[in-house]
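Give me the fold.
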Amino acid sequence: MSNFNMYFMQNRTTFMERLSERLTAIEAVLKKLEPVEGLLERVALLENTIYTTKKVFTFQEACMYIGVSESMLYKLTSNKEIPHYKPRGKMLYFAKEELDAWLLQNYDLRWTMPCVWRRKYPQPNRSLTRSAMENEKRTDRNSWAELDENRLSDILTASQIKATDTYVTPPQIIWIDNSTIATLGNFSASTGKAKAKKTFNVSAIVAASLAGRQVLNYRAHLPEGKRRILYVDTEQSRFHCHNVLERILRLAGLPTTTDNENLDFICLREYTPAVRIEVIDYALRQNKGYGLVIIDGIRDLMLDINSTSESVEVINKMMEWSSKYDLHIHCVLHLNKGDNNVRGHIGTEMSNKAETVLVITKSAENPVISEVHALHIREKEFKPFAFSVDDEGLPVMVDNYSFDGSVRPKARSSFMDLSIEQHREALSAAFGDRPIKGFENVLQALMASYEAIGFKRGRSVMIKLLQYLTENLKLIVKRDKLFYYDVTPTEALLFDEECEDAEGEK
């Protein structure tokens, strides 16, 4: 036996006692320390706190904040799909506010539900272990599912219309002649091309509502408790917004040297679309006395005017606000420069859902005169009127104005909206009493004849129209390369045989 082993055996008891003492001391120190998971959570919390306080991110910080790789973020910036800045032409920087708007640009119905888990975990906790993260996700999915079911149940119950229910007619607040153009719980719009004096027209609507009397051809009356008006301008500078405010007060016959308690005017030109929506929502939550809200212009509540998802989200917001707060919202939107269609997908959605859509156009004969027509109205249509701006900068009626019906912008219709008589009129002009040979020839004939009845469309629409006339209405019969109008397939066959016999005799 070696000397060491002999020493160990002799002093075994003493050695074990010292080892036990050291282990006890180590355990005591460890007990004073927090669990590792707790420390990691505290680190993650500090990381998230830093993100919430910073307003400008570097490239790496932006990657961490939105949760994408560096290569993906480079791709987004090069394609100009995400807002960014290059102050010296090289280094990339990102505004936190704009990143938030970009992250929230695609609306999802699920986000209308209470998001408890989203508030609990604002950013993915990358410091946790994989198992811990999986447990978090599992818990979040379960809680979200419960919220989802409960929310859907509430919506289903609240949405049911029963025969035993009683509904009061929505209060009417704005009229043109005897036609109602605005009621509480709905929204409407004014549209027109640039410099058509849309804002002058809206000023008259607000002035009539503020004064409770007729201004131009508008009569208005806001019920008790709903006398306040919120005017939101997203386009003009503060100077020009002040001019509009002053014009409204003058039209209403009110002093311009004091603020009116029933009119709130806010300018949101310098803010992002997401912030504008949040500010409007906040204003409506704070004041329940609003009866009329003007949003001049609604296009600035979204990043992409042709985005279907954004358009649906904004229009849904209009309907939500008008119903929830029992008020009327009047929006302003431009017409396309090249035609008389309301601009973008937002225009399409607005035309489909709005109570009334007014269109303001310059007179074809006198550009200082603006005409007001109903592009779309649920009530009976009113007689159009015209106004101009006087020397004091106020809109005034133009009496004894003669309207040219051809000047009025019309809602773009489909060929399926045309009557059978209109189709027959165009087809008779196109075909006469003879068939047309060749696909392109019949398209050209249809384009000319339908334009003559007021339905001017391009080649792609006319192709669909030809298919509709052939397959649905059965007004056109095609045999080989010949197109026939108003004949049966048998008659077309007989016509072919007659043509062949005539050619044989020659």
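The longest strand covers residues 370-377.
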